[in-house]
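In the design runs reported in the main text, the only information available to the sequence generator was the tokenized backbone. The following block is the verbatim input for one such run; it is reproduced so that readers can re-run the procedure and compare outputs position by position.
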């Protein structure tokens, strides 16, 4: 199994480390290795049809800040140089156009190459276009890590709950906002909590996507399409972020035994991200950076899941899960 890594930031490095750690697992399960035959970051690339040394890739990136020495203008130019089985796409998300991530995914599918992606933008804008092309080309596409990172929600809804009628899903889908709101629960002003989130690495230098609710909106769109079979995009979501929440609102909620959480809600008729009053002690009042979701089902009732919504190895865990799913279907007995 030959894989190509588009994106070699935190996530790309995490999956490289995970592939290295799971070498014996892959060999025992399939009798073959997963080989990284190419990798690129925003500026450089490195390829080897026989397989690259994962440790050397990581060491080079750490020492030089680059994955390779060769430069490129378009990722497809690099991928054209190789035959490979799976594209792992983890370039930065573009929620306006889908960006290079969308181009990479469509390129791979057109070449009849399976795809694993954590890139929310393409899925939030062109979900059915991507899925229709994958079906046409006989390809598989895994995107478990695009919603909730290590929280296994996509496969849970699509496979483990197959036959169930899922009525709705609502949850905390952005750990950055949850961290900020938890700090505000403890008396910190919004701006101070945001600065601390940035210092801790939970929030980007430009935190707009998180605090305005855009990141959560992408995730509810993916759930709406993949779980409920809807045909919606990011532009269909009713979005309210957390920037208008002040100390008075938090204090009022506290006096009534409540906390404020940014909740994404999706059902056959609802598609919304907004701050909500949640009773203290309720599963959706979860503090800190964890993601959590409440899945309302017809037969099983409410099902609760939680997990780390971001992080190097946490997201790599979801990518490995998708990779195993593809390997089972391609090479399993």
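Verbatim output:
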């Amino acid at each position: 199994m030959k894989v190509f890594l588009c994106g070699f930031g935190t996530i790309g490095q995490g999956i490289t480390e995970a592939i290295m750690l799971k070498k014996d697992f892959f060999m025992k399960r399939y009798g073959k290795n997963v080989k990284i035959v190419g990798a690129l970051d925003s500026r450089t690339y490195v390829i080897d049809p026989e397989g690259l040394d994962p440790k050397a890739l990581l060491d080079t990136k750490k020492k030089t800040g680059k994955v390779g020495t060769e430069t490129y203008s378009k990722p497809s130019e690099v991928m054209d140089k190789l035959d490979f089985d799976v594209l792992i796409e983890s370039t930065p998300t573009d929620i306006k156009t889908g960006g290079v991530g969308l181009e990479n995914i469509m390129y791979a599918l057109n070449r009849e190459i399976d795809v694993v992606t954590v890139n929310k933008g393409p899925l939030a804008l062109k979900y059915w276009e991507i899925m229709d092309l994958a079906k046409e080309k006989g390809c598989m596409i895994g995107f478990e890590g695009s919603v909730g990172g290590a929280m296994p929600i996509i496969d849970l809804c699509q496979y483990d709950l197959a036959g169930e009628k899922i009525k709705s899903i609502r949850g905390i889908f952005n750990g950055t906002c949850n961290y900020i709101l938890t700090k505000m629960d403890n008396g910190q002003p919004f701006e101070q909590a945001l600065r601390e989130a940035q210092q801790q690495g939970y929030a980007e230098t430009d935190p707009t996507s998180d605090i305005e609710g855009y990141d959560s909106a992408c995730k509810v769109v993916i759930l709406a399409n993949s779980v409920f079979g809807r045909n919606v995009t990011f532009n269909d979501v009713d979005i309210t972020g957390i920037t208008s929440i002040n100390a008075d609102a938090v204090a009022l909620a506290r006096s009534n035994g409540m906390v404020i959480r940014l909740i994404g809600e999706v059902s056959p008729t609802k598609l919304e991200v907004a701050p909500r009053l949640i009773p203290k002690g309720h599963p959706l009042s979860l503090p800190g950076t964890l993601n959590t979701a409440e899945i309302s089902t017809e037969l099983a009732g409410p099902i609760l899941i939680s997990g780390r919504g971001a992080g190097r190895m946490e997201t790599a865990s979801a990518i490995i899960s998708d990779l195993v799913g593809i390997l089972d279907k391609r090479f399993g007995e």
